[in-house]
Amino acid sequence: MTQIKRALISVTDKSGIVEFTQKLSSFGVEILSTGGTAAQLRKSGLKVKDVSEYTGFPEMMDGRLKTLHPKIHGGLLALRDNPEHMKAVKEHGIDLIDMVVINLYRFEETVAKEGCTLEHAVENIDIGGPTMLRAAAKNYRFVSVVTDPADYTVILEEMAKTKGKISEETNFRLAVKVFQTTARYDGAISNYLGALTPEGGKKEFPETFTAQFSLAQSLRYGENPHQKAAFYRENDPTLAAISNAKQLQGKELSYNNIMDSDAAWLAVSDFQIPAAVIIKHANPCGAATSGGSLSDAYKKALATDPVSAFGGIVAFNRPVDKATAEELAKIFLEVILAPAFDVDARAILESKKNVRLLEIPTAKGKFTFGFDFRRVAGGLLLQERDNIPFDIRQAKVVTKRKPTEEEYQALDFAWRMVKHVKSNAIVYTTKDQLVGVGAGQTSRVDSVKIAKMKAVLPTKGCVLGSDAFFPFRDGVDIAAEAGITAIIQPGGSVRDEEAIQAADEHGIAMIFTGVRHFKH
Fold it and tell me: Do 404 and 485 have their domain in common?
C-alpha cells in the first residue's frame, strides 16, 4: 500500500474538490495545484503550493506550459522499488507525487456548441492533463490517479481505514479508468479533427471513427441461449434513450428485450400527440395515437393484433396513468417503457412482478443519437439516422384524385410508422391506428398481401404506406382489393406510371414523397 504524502490537484470539474482536499489535508497530505483550482482551494482556507513554485518554472504561453516538467513527471513515474530511479530522484531534487487528481478540459462540450471555431476547439485540447494522468496510471503500483469525482468518497473511506494509504488494487482500478477516459477524449478529438478539411470545411464522415461504450450489464445470453452477450451504453447521460432507462421493476432485461425496447421507443418518439406502440420481434404489431387519453391510444394499439401483442414490448410517449396501467395489467407483456409512471400506475403494475418497467429520462433528454452504425465481418457501416423531417403536405400528388383531409392525416400516420417496419415494409392505417403490417418480405407484393392477411380490423377505408416504390402495379391492385383509398410511397420506379394508372383505375389517391425508408 502507498502512503499518500503529496497530491497534485488540477480540475475542470470542481464539484466536491474542496471537501475532498480538506480530507486529504487532514491526513497530512501536501497539496500542489495550478490556476483556478489553487485559487479556489486557498479561498477555502487550504494550504496550497503552486506547481510553478515547486518546479521553479513559471506558467507561460497562456497556461499551455505549466505541468510539463521533469519535477512533475519524475515524481509521478519514479518506481519506488527501483534503486536507480530513487537515486535519480535524489540527485535532481525531485519530490515524489503519490496522488494526481485531474479531470480534462471539456473538449466534447466545447465542440458541441453552435459556432465553435477550429481555433477555439484546439485551445480546448488538454495536453498537460492527459500526460499527467497517463504517467500516474502507468505507475499505478505507487501512484493513485483520480479523474472521476464519483471516486472521492471511496478513496477517502479507504484512507480512513488505512491511516492515509491506498491499496494497489484500488490504484489499478483507478488507472484503468484513466486509460478509458483518455481513450474517449482522444477519440473525440480524432473524430472532430478528422471530419475537417485543411481549408476549414467539413467532411460528412471522419477519416477514422472512434467510439467508446461503457459496460452497463452482462446479459444471461444473446439472441439465443448459446450466445454470450453484454449491453454497453454511450457515455452521454442526457440521451433520451434506452441506454439511460431506469428499470423500476421486473426481471433482468434480455438481449432481445433491449433490441425490441429500443425499436419501440424510437417508433413512439416519432409522434407528438399521446401515442402507444407495441413491438414484437423488432416490428410494430400495434400502434395508435389519441387526442384524448393514453389508455385509449393503448387500447387501439392492442386492437391492431392482440395475438402478436402477447409477450410484446409497449412504449408510450407520455407518463403512464392509472387507467392505462389497468389495461396493461390485463395481458402478459415483457417490457413497458414510458417517460414516467404515476403512483397509482406503479401500484397496479407491481402485481405483475415479472414485467419490466423502464423509465426513459426525457425532461432534459436529447433525441439526437448521432450516427447509426452496424458491425459487419471486418468492418463497420456508418450512416446518419433516418430522422429526416417531412411535411406530408409537400408530397407530390400524382393521381387524378387528391387525398381528402382525413386521408392526409392517415397518410401522415402511415409514413411515420412504415420506417419502423423491416423492409420490404407495408402498413395499412387509419388516421390514428395501425391496422395491418407486412414486414420483411423479399417481394413488395407479398408484404401488401400479408398486411391484409394479418389485419384483424377492417381494412376498407384505410390508407397504405410503402417504405419504397412499387416495382409493378400488382401491389396497388391488391391494395384496392383490400379497400385502400390512398397510398403514400417514395416513387422513383421506372414503372411509376403503371402504379399511378392502377391507382386512377381504382379511384385511389397516391402521393410521392421522394424519400425512401428502408430498414434492414
Answer: yes
